[in-house]
Amino acid sequence: MDTRLPLLLLLAGVVAAAAPLLATAQLSADFYSSTCPNVEKVVSTVIERKFKEDPTTSALLLRLLFHDCFANGCDASILIDPLSNQSAEKEAGPNISVKGYDIIDEIKTELEKECPQVVSCADIVALSTRDSVRLAGGPNYDVPTGRRDSLVSNREEGDSLPGPDIAVPKLMAQFSEKGFSADEMVVLLAGGHSIGKAKCFFIEVDAAPIDPTYRSNITAFCDGKDGDKGAVPLDPITPDVVDPNYFELVMDKKMPLTIDRLMGMDARTKPIVESMGKKTDQFDATFGKAMTKLSGMKVITGKDGEIRKSCSEFNNPVNTDDGPSVIRISSLNPEEMMGSFAPATGKSPSAASESRKVAPGGAMEERMAAGEAKTDASGGAMAERLAAGEAKTAAAASEDENQAAGDEAAAEEEGTKSNKKKAERVTAEVPADEAAPAAKKPRAMGGQSFSMAGAGAGGEPAKKSTAMKSQSFSMASQPQQ
Ligand code: HEM
């Protein structure tokens, strides 16, 4: 064997790990000092007002930033509205329930008045997320600026984002490819999932071990009047505060999303969760550092890309035969979105509520195959539930088909060319085996089957509380927007 090989591999690893840092190095603290000196003030004024009106602002922006940055870099590609003949990252399954675009637009409007076409949308996303995390009680981390906006926005990039029941080794591989260590991955999840909510649609109580009382509460809530559109807090103790509660919640198996519960059970991540849970005083510093790195991932700088005039469209949008007819996803009726997209994912809301109890495929199956899965939470009844889930698939699938057909008809009736074209495009993109899901098992949420059928619908920093109270929690349903 070539004795230089281990050295070369080591060097390759070091270069890969340094990639995001190199990109961050092209950014600077005083990038707008002469071209738009008030940029930070303008951003923080809008964010403080938004946060005062609605503290969930922080969760919306933090998720938006993660989804933009993790899908090919922090380049504002997630903000682009799809055109009638061109899809965009925003339409990808994992992005359908992402919100906060209106907040970025509002800041952009203010900045365009002050210094036209100077501040990039990518910088606005990074700065506004930093401010909203600080207001929610999190760290005030560094966000150097100088990002430029992308000239492309691909739906496929968004589709590659991890789903909530992705297996831990796969998730670690995804983070590692992007230059993040396992510790950084865990702390990003910990901070990110310490605020905000998860819709019942995304929750599978049997896909990983879970606290029995917590399980009953979740199941009772999610089987309630709002069904899959209801949403439960990720951190029931301090749902709007960025704090280190995550670690204890994970170890207690009291988190709604499968991936978070898996973090506390996988042999690679469990020791990290335990160790970080013992050093909560270091959380702000560690999370802040990881956020600076995430916010600087694969940024576009210098003469590349552009500074958009409007964050939701390129400066020179591709002209179509019918003119640049922009479909604004945010203006579509959520029911319409659910229907339009259901065939592509093979999952209807009713199928989703079944999968809350049934966890075929995805991480659980992988772990079972690897002999890693414990049967404690899912118990011996797993096989029975799998069988029950399969029996219900045909009904769920035919519901999907009916819903999709209904939406196409509705789009046509409305006479809006853009809506009709979109319906056509969505149908055209459905692979043959997906278009007839009746013969398939109900799909788990994770991996790339992350479905969007669940899409539905102020100023003082929040107070921290790391004290763990009893696990009773109010599961307010997600307000419709
Ligand atoms: C790495 C794997 C991750 C997966 C699989 C994942 C998945 C999810 C899912 C399924 C939801 C619920 C969405 C909904 O109900 O609409 C969610 C919510 C959220 N995620 Fe993640 N996430 C991950 C990492 C992160 C990271 C790294 C951050 C930020 C640093 C983050 C921030 C958030 C926030 C703030 C929410 C709440 C959003 C809201 O209330 O609207 N997530 N995540």
UniProtKB/TrEMBL annotation:
UniProt similarity note: Belongs to the peroxidase family.
Protein encoded by which gene: LOC127766031
InterPro entries: Haem_peroxidase, Haem_peroxidase_sf, Peroxidase_pln, Peroxidases_AS, Secretory_peroxidase
Disulfide bonds: C36-C115, C69-C74, C121-C311, C200-C222
Cofactors demanded by this protein: Ca(2+); heme b
Annotated residues for binding of heme b: H193
EC number annotated for this UniProt entry: 1.11.1.7
Source organism superkingdom: Eukaryota
Coiled-coil portions: none
GO biological process, one term: response to oxidative stress
PANTHER family per record: PEROXIDASE, PTHR31517
Cofactor mode of binding and number, as noted: Binds 2 calcium ions per subunit.
The entry's keywords: Calcium, Disulfide bond, Heme, Hydrogen peroxide, Iron, Metal-binding, Oxidoreductase, Peroxidase, Pyrrolidone carboxylic acid, Secreted, Signal
Biased composition (Basic and acidic residues): 145-158, 364-375
Lineage: Eukaryota, Viridiplantae, Streptophyta, Embryophyta, Tracheophyta
Site features described as Transition state stabilizer, chain residue numbers: R63
Keyword GTP-binding in record: no
Low complexity bias: start-end ranges: 383-408, 428-439
Binding of Ca(2+) 2, residues: D235, T238, D243
Function: Removal of H(2)O(2), oxidation of toxic reductants, biosynthesis and degradation of lignin, suberization, auxin catabolism, response to environmental stresses such as wounding, pathogen attack and oxidative stress. These functions might be dependent on each isozyme/isoform in each plant tissue.
Organism: Oryza glaberrima (African rice)
Active site (record annotation): H67 (proton acceptor)
Residues at which substrate binds: P162
Signal peptide bounds: 1-17
Protein name stated in the entry: peroxidase
GO molecular function ontology, one term from the record: lactoperoxidase activity
Annotated spans, Disordered: 138-163, 337-481
Domain Plant heme peroxidase family profile as annotated: residue spans: 26-315
